[in-house]
Amino acid sequence: MRVLEFVDTHAPYLTMQSTVQDAVDKLDLYKATVLPVLNDDGAVVGLITERQVFEVLYAEWQVAAQQVPLPQLAPFRAHAHARKDTPITQWMTPDPPVLSEHAPIEEAVALMLQYGLDALPVQGEGKFIGTIRMVDCCQALLEDTQTEL
Description:
- Strands 1-2-3-4 form a 4-stranded mixed sheet. Strands 5-6-7 form a 3-stranded mixed sheet.
- By secondary structure, the chain is of the alpha/beta class.
- 39% of the residues lie in helices and 20% in strands.
- It has helices at 20-30, 50-57, 59-64, 77-83, 105-115, 134-148, and strands spanning 14-15, 34-38, 44-49, 93-94, 99-100, 119-124, 127-133.
- Helix 1 packs across helix 2 and helix 5 (105-115) runs antiparallel to helix 6.
- It has one domain: CBS-domain (Roll), CATH 3.10.580.
């Protein structure tokens, strides 16, 4: 089975002009955990996860959280608010793993496990066409098993 059969072609993404606030909005709206960042040609040039976004916004809280008792998040909102309009390119992971639409499902699983991600961007002819999630791979593998039985 190939990635193309299970790719979500309606997956959200960001552009090089997007901000951290844009990432929060799309992660929330689409209930996504990973957002590819595209250049003007539609190629994937970066990736941002919801965990990275939290770390950007609440880095100071994470340092303070190393102490007991655990601090409240509210006092750190000013730091988060100050970063919300920064360009996503400042925080994204550049040159992330990207799958070809023709890659086998096993390659998708291997890359997700290697990079600790639960979704990956998929490209066709050098342009972003969607994402594939780990659950999509599980579905593909279960379907493949059913046809073998």
